[in-house]
Amino acid sequence: MNNKTPFKPLYQEVQQAITHKIIAGEWKPGEMLPSEFQLADMLGVSQGTVRKALNALGESNVVYRRQGVGTFVSENTLKDMLFHFFHYKFNDGSERGLPTAKLIKMRLIKARGKIKEELALDHEEKVVEITRTRLIDRTACISEKIYLPLRYFDGLDQEGGLPNSLYHYYQEQFQITINKASDKIRAVIANQTDNDLIGVALGQPLLEVSRVAKALDGKIVEYRISRVDSEQLHYLVELN
Predict the structure, then answer these.
(1) Where do you find CATH 1.10.10.10 in the chain?
(2) Given this model, what pLDDT does residue 23 score?
(3) Which of 151, 158, 102 is nearest to 131 (CA)?
(4) Which residues have a Cβ under 8 Å from the Cβ of 167 and sit 6 or more positions away?
């Protein structure tokens, strides 16, 4: 049996080292990194290796560059979140302002079944369950159930309210940067809970979007189920 560690190009090791420093808080969101020359000296590699590592980090939105200024740690601003993670559009093609959120309830529960499985938890540990609705132009059109492992979000269940942009909030309050998300979409039928939350008729077709979101270090930090009024909205992904 071959137990040798797989070969990893040097720039990928540098990429990983920079990512670990960002996760550790050495460089915070919005902060400028040291220059390529300084990073090369710090990490004991060539400037070209650092540049390749930074290019890879830029492609994965961990950092961004300002021409003639420097390289900065990416921030999960509201604009960024809408561009990268909010894929709903009105069926008539109209633009009706930014989405807002209304918190319905927040509580601690034990992770069991599907929640435990999607969050890749080994035990029935506690998670924060958030129920809220998303409104566009004051119209409720999406309901959300969000599950967050308490070990990553200690004290969140004690908060009196939550902002519209949770990913920006995770980054600011818990130093967790959402870097990747995987969505699964299926058709469902509206039930009484959907009627209560977003006012759709019983039996109306809805879109259900289940999302697993990961932080910079690859750990799963959020499982979210969104149920969408398909008479108002559709899910759009643009590939470039």
Answers:
(1) 10-73
(2) 73
(3) 102
(4) 76, 81, 85, 178, 213
Q: Does domain 10-73 have CATH number 1.10.10.10?
A: yes
Helix/strand/coil (H, E, C) string of the chain? CCCCCCCCCHHHHHHHHHHHHHHCCCCCCCCECCCHHHHHHHHCCCHHHHHHHHHHHHHCCCEEEECCCEEEECCCCHHHHHHHHCCEEECCCCCCCCCEEEEEEEEEEECCHHHHHHCCCCCCCEEEEEEEEEEECCEEEEEEEEEEECCCCCCHHHCCCCCCCHHHHHHHHHCCCEEEEEEEEEEEECCHHHHHHHCCCCCCEEEEEEEEEEECCCCEEEEEEEEEECCCEEECCCCC
Where the chain has pLDDT below 70, the residues are 1-7, 76-85, 96-97, 239-240
Distances in Å between the Cα of 77 and the Cα atoms of 29, 159, 166, 178, 180 are: 10, 21, 10, 11, 15
Q: How far apart are CA 130 and CA 156, in angstroms?
A: 10
pTM: 0.77
Place of tokens 């759009």: 236
- Distance of alpha carbon 64 from alpha carbon 128, whole angstroms: 32
- What's the fold here for domain 78-235? Chorismate lyase (3.40.1410)
The Cβ of residue 178 has, within 10 Å, a number of other Cβ atoms equal to 22
